[in-house]
Amino acid sequence: MKTRLIIKQFPLEKLLLWYDENRRDLPWRKTRDIYKIWLSEVMLQQTQVATVIPYYRRFLKHFPTIESLASADEQEVLKLWEGLGYYNRCHNFYRAAKQVVENYNCRIPDQPQEFKKLPGVGPYILAAVMSITLDIPLPVLDGNVIRVITRFYEIKDDISKGATKKKIKDILTGHIPENNPG
């Protein structure tokens, strides 16, 4: 018995249309400032959006630029982060801000290979920040994306394995719209 190979085309245009009509009005969606987007992505790691919004606004009120953050006392920064949890995120972001000021003349690196050298910048932060702010088409892999792609493409492989993640990343790479990768 022959098996037919069924190639599914992900309904990207429908998904983007749905997003345009239904996206939430969030403060970080009103900017393409790399510092502000980076901050939002760091704060949003394992934290609900509703929790992040007041912290994000308060943080930017006190530290509107990477320079202001880098020149602040770390205890002052941690005090503003208090209650958001996962304090390692804050330590890394603060250390990264200092490195940006010291090593990159206050300019957040706009090249992926440089940006990923900063403390706390892993594959997710790298892809999210670069695609949203600089239109660099890098696929974002998080639990939600993995769940949607594995269900849509009926991928049964173990998602904790590198080969499976590579397969998903390859699928996503083929779907990132060049005119709007973020």
Describe the overall structure.
This protein is an all-alpha fold. Helix content is about 55%, strand content about 0%. The protein is built from 10 helices and no strands. α2 crosses α3. The longest helix has 17 residues. The radius of gyration is 18 Å and the shape is globular. The chain starts with 11 loop residues before the first helix and ends in a 9-residue tail after the last helix. The N terminus is likely disordered.
Features:
182 residues, mainly alpha, 10 helices, 0% strand, disordered N terminus
Summarize the structure.
With 182 residues, the chain is an all-alpha fold.
How is this fold's topology laid out?
Elements: H1 12-22, H2 34-44, H3 49-62, H4 66-70, H5 74-81, H6 87-103, H7 112-115, H8 123-134, H9 143-152, H10 162-173
Helix pairs in contact: 2-3, 2-8, 5-6
Number of helical regions? 10
SSE sequence, one letter per element: HHHHHHHHHH
| Low-confidence parts | 1-6
Strand content: under 5%
- The dominant shape is globular
Oligomeric grouping of the chains: single chain
Largest sheet: none
Mean pLDDT across every amino acid position = 91
